[in-house]
Amino acid sequence: MVSVLSELKQLHPCLRARVHRFHPLHLHPPSLSSSATGSGNSNSNPKTFVLYLPTVCLRYEQNPSFALACHAANHLNVPLVVLAVVVDDASHACPTHPHRYPPMMHSDNDVNSNSSSLCPSVVMTSRRLAFTLQAMSHACNLWSEHGAAVGVRIHSHAGGGQRTPDHLTLASRSSLVITDEPFVSPYTTFVRRVEEACRKSNVECLRVDGSCTVPPLQVLKKRNNVGVCSKILYDGVPDKAYAWQNKTEHLRESHLTAAKEGYFDAPKLSVCMEDDDLSLRVDSSFTEDIAGSLSVGQRLAHLFPPRWKQKSTNNVLDDDDVQRSTLGIRPYTSRELSQLYQNDAHVGGATPEKQQQSSNTRASQQLHIERPFHNFALNWPGADHTIPPCPQTIGTTPCGMRRWNKFVQNGGLLRYGKERNDPRLVYSVSRMSAYLNLGIVSIFALVLDVKNAQKMQQQARSKGNDKCSQNAKGNIRWDKSGADKFEEEIVKWREMSYAHAFSREDYDDVGSLPQWSVSYLNSCSSRGDCGRYTIHQLANGTTGDAKWDAMQKYLMRTGELHNNARMTWGKTVVEWLSSSAADDDSSCISASQLILRTLCYLNDRYALDGLSPPSYAGLLWCMGWTDKPSGGNSGGSFASIKFKPARLYRWNQDDFRVAEKKLLAPPSIQDDENEDSSCIIHRGPKRKRSVMDMIRS
């Protein structure tokens, strides 16, 4: 079998550099039985379709994965099928990460409690579900308009066939599978299962990086050995973030230019399909009678799961069709998802509490418009509705770009260096991390804007219009611009975290920490003033430390936490739990493991930007990753972690309450960031003015 990737000669080098194949072809040829039934794929099988399974690149423009899928579909002269799957917590545990949840931190009241009951969902919360569906509704509509057949499935452990792995069935029957480079769980688990299904059926499966300006794949060196689950490991990630930026900077301009010139945008499809073709029922007699006049969808109907079939060729519904189409048994079409977005409809099975929330939301036209999928997510079977959606954030590309443009237009890049550390100034930071983590907003577009802002500030500096200072010797020293500081966050730190997650299995485990840090945490002696807290107290912000509790409650209610505050929030947990675990002889794991599991749980469960490489890198930093030890060198016995106790934090609980009120204020009060949803679904992002114009204004 010839690789489709090798046949795509017209691909831009920067697009090709983002693609890799996890398993070699012809590792396990399909059996004769599977080929005969159409469940496998081989050289002798007719060409079927290209399958794109998006996970962390939920956008239409500047999407390398979708672009490659369209190139491949045109090369093979087959249609493109897009199946967007919203995964749940069942994809969050795998052999490489059996430790996702922290063990119970004992107290007199919960010694006999089951730790699993203390650690509910971190993936399938109403908060994350609503945000993801908002993103998919916009992207899927544009993918469908482009000519792909699009379906959306939402996994749920509530039963009724909602976790049936239909994506694996489609993968084994396709001509080629394209996935986003997943980087972290649960997306890595999802993609690896797809790759295993492709390996057994000898179907080529390609990963494409759309998350980084420079893909780690292009820079790192592959190891000869592999890890658990046959994960490919890489070497070459430096210990410091600035070193990673220096190592990749010479490649960045070419990738940004490729994105700007449209090489990461999809070509027009030569063979198109409708979303409804995925659920089309074609009778065998009908097929035999007019086999020569069948549409593309009719010819491929036998490849899609029978449980998806909703209508026959004459569009007459059978008695069971309605049941098949409920609760996600078959995929939602892009049109249906758009209708759910606009109507804020909810599904059955609601509790009285949820029904009251739904009626309250529908009672207000303002909420009805500005909170798409909130009722749906609060009532979806299997979703944890105790973590509600974020009212201040809508997860579509236009809303994300509107937030970014507002930040730039209001001088955010200019003032970033001065105001970025004040959590009271909620709009002095971009608040783009959640959009970037799921690829809702293009990283290329943002970094291009930052680069342009840097050029402007450099020009102002050369003309003497920028501020400067004198050092002790009287020499003039230009202050680092806001755009320079922002670039450090979005390129240096962010992309270093992606390289870290890409290169190793234990990206969120203590194996990533320096040995001096692990040794220090595991040998901490008890500190009587720190006390010990249960997972309930930490999660609910009821520890008694007023400032830390204010940070945690802010995170719970808004799904956000200012980066400066989050560092103190995490460092405080490290200080508390290192002493508590060391004083607890019953603990079955080390202090360092307990701390990291707890931090990951708290962050992933509540933060909208959790479950991402930057989040895990930030939590590891709280435990000494890429940091210098305090009190000695890294090899000495006196090396320790620098703590940042919340009780010493500059701002207090009242400041966080004011910031929360400002952040959650109705759009008419805060700004026009959340517009009528009807103008979001069917449009791509509109860039009326350049970043230059915004900064000048």
Automatic annotation (TrEMBL):
Residues 48-213 form the Photolyase/cryptochrome alpha/beta domain. This is Photolyase/cryptochrome alpha/beta domain-containing protein.
